[in-house]
Here is the input.
Amino acid sequence: MASAKAKDGYDASSITVLEGLEAVRVRPGMYIGSVSTRGLNHLIYEIVDNSVDEHLAGYCDRITVTLEKDGSATVSDNGRGIPVGMHEKGISAERLVFTTLHAGGKFDNSAYKTSGGLHGVGSSVVNALSERLTVTVKTGGQIYRDTYERGIPTTELVGGLLPPLGKTRETGTCVNFLPDPQIFDKTWFREEDVKSRLHETAYLNPKLTIVFRDLRKEEKEEITFHEPEGIVGFIRGMNGQTETVTDVVYLTGECDGIVVECAFQYINEFHENVLGFCNNIYNSEGGTHLTGFKTQFTTVINSYARQLNILKEKDPNFTGADVRNGMTAVISIKHPDPRFEGQTKTKLDNQDAAKAVAKVIGDEVVRYFDRNLETLKNIIGCAEKAAKIRKSEEKAKTNLLVKQKYSFDSNGKLANCVSREADKCEIFIVEGDSAGGSAKMARDRMYQAILPIRGKILNVEKASIDKILANAEIKTMINAFGCGFSEGYGNDFDIKKLRYDKIIIMADADVDGAHISNLLLTLFYRFMPELIYEGHVYIAMPPLYKAIPSKGKEEYLYDDKALEKYRQTHKGSFTLQRYKGLGEMDAEQLWETTLDPARRRMKLVEIEDARMASDMTALLMGTDVPPRKAFIYEHALDALLDI
Here is the structure.
């Protein structure tokens, strides 16, 4: 039996054991989510979270984050400083923290009562994924420094300890790291995302000051984030100049050792924006704390509505979506032992968090409403309006979303694939009949479906729901995907019914193509957001050029940088073919460049910051023109489109 396995190339020697931080470098996505810009920025957040934990413990009131000119990032704080004394393992505690997974002070409740970095892997993961990293510690009146290259120490210990470099009266930790280009697609930190995250952290910690510096540009930038109003200021900041229906309501309390803070306000718009945080970590996928809040708040509002005779005996209760329509809310809890789904902490999993939030909200919101009857009536008025709209739209959906046959469509719309295995199937949304015709000829009919659309679809950010549901192109997409459609007043969307694992937007590489892509992304984000959150939406990257040399192999070039590189490296003459649109490619070229899973290039659409994504969608696609003009003028030079 053993020899048979060996013949197949699978025996004891096939089992690989990754030592130390090797596992992080081999599978970085397991620890930081991805190796895209999102994962890159996450390195900063891991180190910042450690400094915030020092603040929560009462030893740090200032954090500075600097994006350095050389592409590295520096995070410094005035906390106690990472311990540098001898650990029972025989080396400095600091060295252990930066070279060993699951090593840190977060496992000792005497050191940190509540913490965001629960897994003890943040510092070591950042170290493993950095080309170089330097730690400077000020503690016990001395300064210490340790250095690493790709996770491997380069500073020699003396008797297992770091030698002191000098004396100081200050305390704190400073970490400078340069992301490893061998790991990340790009190593340029996206400053807007970093600033947004730091500002959020300042809102959640009203006694903390965070300084952000960007030294990479000619005009150096420095911003200080300090928000003494806490999450009340957070709510005001999110709602900006929007017309409000209520004042900001702030509630807080403690249950079973879990501290709960909640702030909410209603605005005169028909959507909800409820954000959840646990130990200062934003949980983009929500979790039990949000479930506890939503369930309890809905119960309380329905109870009051019946007490006030607004809901009659025969009337059904308001739904949760009705009750939260127009609500902007932040729920922040401090939990001594939180459980998250994944290292990136996108979802909270503690059942006791739901009970604690429900208890605090149930007690405190009733106490508030008993003293503020007008606010209560305004909230119930928002729920009444939402319920009426929901009911009328349910009728509209029934009338407008007539089920279409799920097959090759005789009118030239959906050319479906043969397979019904959703996890293997993909659908290409193609602009124009010409490109659609080529794509239908080029595709793998077993697994690839083609859905041509004619021109630009409706801008859903500006349109009413009845116009959206009446739009032929949108109806065709909804029916093709098979998972329904969701909006602010109800939700018949079911991601489990999605017929395709990949939804791929395939538009021309010009201004019109970019506009079509943006319109489609706006539709998906506003009315089918799970498609994006669960990684089903992609953007195809067809080439701009084809280089045809007098001698040698033809080569596709995907952007102007690739063309410039080809010109510099290619010896001899060549002819350049410019593709102005997908319709100019024949079926074979389209398959080689854009459809073939083995050779194509695609962008996965991700959302790093839900609040920023929502604000940016409203800014770029909404009805308010002056802010959009200002944004375009400010970022005009950043455009990469070939026009």
